[in-house]
Amino acid sequence: MAGTDNGVDVETGIKSGITGDSAPAVAKPQDANDLAGLEAGLDALDSVHVARTSLRETLLRKTLPPVIAVALVLVLWQLLVWAEVAPEYKLASPSDVWGEAREAWFQGTLLDYIWTSVSRGLLGFLMALAIGTPLGLLVARVGFVRAAIGPILSGLQSLPSVAWVPPAVIWLGLNDSMMYAVILLGAVPSVANGLVAGIDQIPPLFLRAGRTLGATGLREAWHIVMPGALPGYLAGLKQGWAFSWRSLMAAEIIASSPDLGVGLGQLLENGRNNSSMAQVFLAILLILLVGIAIDLLIFSPLERRVLRGRGLLVTR
Amino acid sequence: MATETATTAEVAGNTEDTPAVTYAARVEHVSKSFPAPGTSGGQQLVLDDITLDVAPGEFVTLLGASGCGKSTLLNLVAGLDRPTAGSIGTDGRPALMFQEHALFPWLTAGKNVELALRLRGVAKAERRQEAERLLDLVRLQGAYGKRVHELSGGMRQRVALARALAQESRLLLMDEPFAALDAITRDVLHDELTRIWRETGLSVLFVTHNVREAVRLAQRVVLLSSRPGRIARQWTVGLPHPRRLEDTAVAELSVEITEELRGEIRRHGRH
Ligand SMILES: Nc1ncnc2c1ncn2[C@@H]1O[C@H](COP(=O)(O)OP(=O)(O)OP(=O)(O)O)[C@@H](O)[C@H]1O
Ligand SMILES: [Mg+2]
Q1: Interatomic CA distance for residues A267 and A117, integer angstroms
Q2: Judging by beta carbons within 10 Å of its beta carbon (0-12, 13-18, 19+), is residue A288 exposed, middle or buried?
Q3: Which ranges carry the ABC transporter domain (chain B) (predicted)?
Q4: Does residue A68 share a domain with residue A43?
Q5: Residue nearest to atom 14 of ligand 1 (CA)
Q6: A227-282: per-residue pLDDT in tens?
Q7: How many domains does chain A have?
Q8: Which domain holds residue A73?
Q9: Whose CA is nearest to atom 1 of ligand 1?
Q10: Quick one: pLDDT band at residue A50, thresholds 50, 70, 90?
Q11: Is residue B114 in a domain?
């Protein structure tokens, strides 16, 4: 018997009455099939079945309401134009804006405007991702780094990134690198902070479970910490994209120069200079549409997938 | 059963590569204190001079009132925490099963098992098959692609068991793994655990505060006292398997142990 040397009362052996020989007459040997059958029954009774909604239902419930809302806004807008609440040079009509868009489309410049900005925005965002992710991991996991730059990082989030445009122009000149610098300063804190929040919210149980499975160091970061933090990280990415896009537009509006190429920000600024309200409206609409499209095409599906996979998405 | 053959000299190294390890876990004069809440610098002694061996292939249940330090002891053996005094040796890194299933919700049931295999260094080509074999072992053939939230409580614990078995540890630590389950499911899982234990020859250290569960499963029941946690008494359970909760022998021993446990708890009311 083990443990007899610890000075504590240890009882060894057990009254022979209870050991084997008096095995009771109660119906006892339960054969393996019986157990398997019982288990299968329990499993069947207790499992959750997740039903997916049909395409038609999605269209009806998800697509129709925003379409109606947009139609209403257009109607209201047209009514205001008809009522002549403001002179024409101040309030362009929907058809003027539509004409402006058609013209740009047939000149082949419309897609150029959009692509110039979107490619800048996405490239800048990817760079923000590449910098913000390891930064967030460091801040979340290394106490010293967190104490040193954690508060600064959260503070930076509330600094409007347009404030970076003047110094960026002075340091880097009127070129693409200045645009990217502004995007990075706007988006990196969001990405990093999102990851930090995501990591902080990982249940400690998962970390302990990971450790007992032998996940330490980088393997822990890759297999446990990053996937565990994914929901918070995605929220950070979403916000990071919004900040990238905003900072980019600010930079494009303020710092326009012929050799930068015309993006949506410059389109807006050009419209103001040409006193073309239709062009200004068009630029604003396009900026809005791109923001919505990226969210709808990239982030929302990603987020839904992650949440549904974890059973966290409540379908109403 | 535990043998008393190991001399202190043999054990002194406590390293995993010592060829003749005669224990699955060896806990020697282990104490653990935590900073006492409210006082500054004060210490609360949770475990006091615990000495306990788990022999290879042995099934030991650790029984005690709530808050007596069972989880603390198990965490120490698992290496998740360090003892304040004393030493702990295990034969390789033990596997640990928690009261909550602790499955990763971002992976399917099968991938949870595969992650354990991967972290153990199993080659990619073999992982899938091995994971399916382990899921078979806990009778979850169809569950490979299921998400954690699609499984019932009992199924989750079985996947967690499969994942723990995937570590190929010689010692399985279980911290009240079935406490949150309904009585019927728990009873079924007792049978499964017993079957798997006998098939694999694992050593198991199983924590519970349920006396009948302890008696139904174990070869040896260790009773911990509370505040501080000490080994109060041990029983060897020689009953043959399969056992049932309703067996009179199980009931009789449970009554005896419960009396002892009550006595332990009552002792605290007096001072
Ligand atoms: N990290 C910690 N810091 C401070 N005190 C702790 C810590 N972990 C446990 N304790 C204390 O140690 C004591 C024993 O805790 P433990 O969780 O080991 O009990 P237990 O026997 O597992 O109880 P239960 O049956 O409720 O799970 C408790 O009084 C608890 O407050
Ligand atoms: Mg506990």
Answers
A1: 10
A2: exposed
A3: 25-253
A4: no
A5: B69
A6: 999 988 998 899 899 988 988 998 888 887 777 788 888 888 888 888 888 889 99
A7: 3
A8: 52-85
A9: B34
A10: low
A11: no
Cα A124 to Cα A130: distance, rounded to the nearest angstrom: 10
The set of protein residues with a Cβ atom below 6 angstroms from ligand 1 is: B 34, 46, 64, 66-72, 209
Q: Domain for residue B174, yes or no? A: yes
**Could you tell me if A84 lies within 8 Å of chain B, comparing CB atoms?**
no
In a domain, A5, yes or no: yes
In the stretch 104-163 of chain A, residues with CB closer than 8 A to chain B read none
B110 is a domain residue: no
The answer on A72 and A159 residing in a single domain is no
For A38: left if phi > 0, alpha if psi spans -120 to 50, otherwise beta; the answer is: alpha
Q: What is the CATH number of the domain that holds B214?
A: 3.40.50.300
Residue-wise pLDDT tens for chain B (271 aa)? 333 333 333 333 444 454 566 887 788 888 888 887 776 777 888 888 888 888 888 999 999 888 888 888 998 998 888 888 888 888 888 999 988 889 999 999 999 999 999 998 888 888 888 888 889 888 888 888 888 888 888 888 889 989 998 988 889 999 998 888 888 888 888 888 898 888 888 999 999 988 888 888 888 989 888 888 888 788 888 878 788 877 787 778 788 878 877 877 777 666 5
Please report the residues numbered 46 through 65 in chain A whose beta carbons come closer than 8 angstroms to any beta carbon of chain B: 46-50
Kindly report the CATH number assigned to the domain that includes residue A260.
1.10.3720.10
Give the model confidence (pLDDT) of A102-150 as tens digits. Answer: 888 888 888 888 998 999 999 999 999 999 999 999 998 888 988 888 8
Nearest to A47 among B52, B150, B234 (CB): B150
Residue A316 lies in a domain: no
Single out the residue of B198, B201, B165, B193 nearest to residue B177, CA to CA.
B193
Contact B233 A30 (CB under 8 A): no
Q: Where are the alpha helices (DSSP H) in A142-202?
A: 143-157, 165-172, 176-200
Domain that holds residue B35: 12-87+96-103+170-269
Q: Is residue B130 part of a domain?
A: no
Nearest CA of chain A to the CA of B130: how many Å? 16
Nearest-atom number in ligand 1 for the CA of B74 is: 18
Which amino acid type is present at position A292?
A: I
Q: Are A163 and A191 contained in the same domain?
A: yes
Same domain, A71 and A146: no
Minimal-distance CA residue to ligand 1 atom 3: B34
Q: Is residue A41 part of a domain?
A: yes
**CB within 5 A of ion ligand 2: which residues?**
B 71
Asked if A100 and A224 sit in the same domain, the reply is: yes
- CB contact under 8 Å between A228 and B152, yes or no, is no
| Nearest residue by C-alpha to atom 18 in ligand 1 | B69
Residues A154 and A121 in one domain: yes
pLDDT tens-digit map of A180-230: 999 999 899 999 999 999 999 999 999 989 988 988 888 888 899 989 999
Residues of A in contact with B233 (CB under 8 A): 9-11
Same domain, residue pair A161 and A292? yes
Q: For chain B, what is the domain count?
A: 1
ipTM of the prediction? 0.80
User: How far is B163 from chain A, CA to nearest CA, in Å?
Assistant: 9
Same domain, A153 and A26: no
Q: How far apart are CA A205 and CA B96, in angstroms?
A: 12
Query: How is residue B119 written in tokens?
Result: 């972290």
Q: Taking a C-beta distance cutoff of 8 angstroms, is the pair A286, A98 a contact?
A: no
Amino acid code (one letter) for A129 = L
Contact (CB, 8 A) for B162 and B137: yes
